[in-house]
């Protein structure tokens, strides 16, 4: 019999991984979040984007980057000519971390213990998908992928080596950084720099 191609059960392996992640208790964040928000996208994607963690809307929808930061991300991808349906999108931390203020759930940054605990899932997603380019959106994703804290402005816009040799890592800003800039001119400038980073990444893919 002809042996199956090596990736023939890639979808099955990914689905099994996702199912395991759905009941993850590697850190305490599962206790308050609605659900695990796993990555999504084609398993032969050449670019994997890694965000920080799901926000309020992602936690409810069970999908990454569907809220306000997702809208900024989608608009920038479109300007850079990258089809979101052709890339894999995930997060460094798979559960929403928040503090309650009245009825509102306010985003709270994951700490290094939570980032390090959740690296297990990102590493497994990467080892199944093997993207030649992995993009860290912001400092949390950069820490997860590079195993150390970096200053975004020092490392953005150039390819870095992943510590496990798994292709190139690019670091850029997180879309929610753009959301928070109050001055319109500066916001436009930073959006253009983000799109420029995405265009460079696209050119390498
Ligand atoms: N911010 C992220 O980092 N990821 C999401 O999925 C949503 C907002």
TrEMBL record:
<feature type="domain" description="Uracil-DNA glycosylase-like">
    <location>
        <begin position="38"/>
        <end position="199"/>
    </location>
</feature>
<protein>
    <recommendedName>
        <fullName>Type-4 uracil-DNA glycosylase</fullName>
    </recommendedName>
</protein>
<comment type="similarity">
    <text>Belongs to the uracil-DNA glycosylase (UDG) superfamily. Type 4 (UDGa) family.</text>
</comment>
């Amino acid at each position: 019999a002809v042996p199956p191609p090596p990736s023939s059960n890639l979808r099955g392996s990914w689905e099994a991984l996702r199912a395991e992640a759905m009941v993850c208790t590697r850190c305490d964040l599962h206790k308050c979040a609605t659900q695990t928000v796993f990555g999504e996208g084609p398993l032969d994607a050449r670019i994997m984007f890694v965000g920080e963690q799901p926000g309020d809307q992602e936690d409810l929808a069970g999908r990454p980057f569907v809220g306000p930061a997702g809208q900024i991300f989608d608009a920038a991808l479109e300007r850079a000519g990258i089809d979101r349906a052709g890339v894999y999108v995930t997060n460094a931390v798979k559960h929403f971390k928040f503090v309650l203020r009245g009825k509102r759930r306010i985003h709270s940054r994951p700490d290094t213990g939570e980032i390090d605990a959740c690296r297990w899932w990102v590493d497994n997603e990467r080892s199944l998908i093997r993207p030649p380019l992995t993009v860290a959106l912001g400092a949390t994703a950069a820490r997860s992928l590079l195993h150390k804290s970096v200053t975004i402005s020092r490392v953005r816009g150039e390819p870095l080596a992943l510590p496990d040799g798994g292709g190139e890592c690019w670091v850029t800003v997180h879309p929610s950084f753009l959301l928070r800039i109050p001055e319109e001119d500066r916001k436009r400038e930073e959006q253009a720099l983000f799109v420029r980073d995405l265009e460079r990444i696209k050119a390498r893919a």
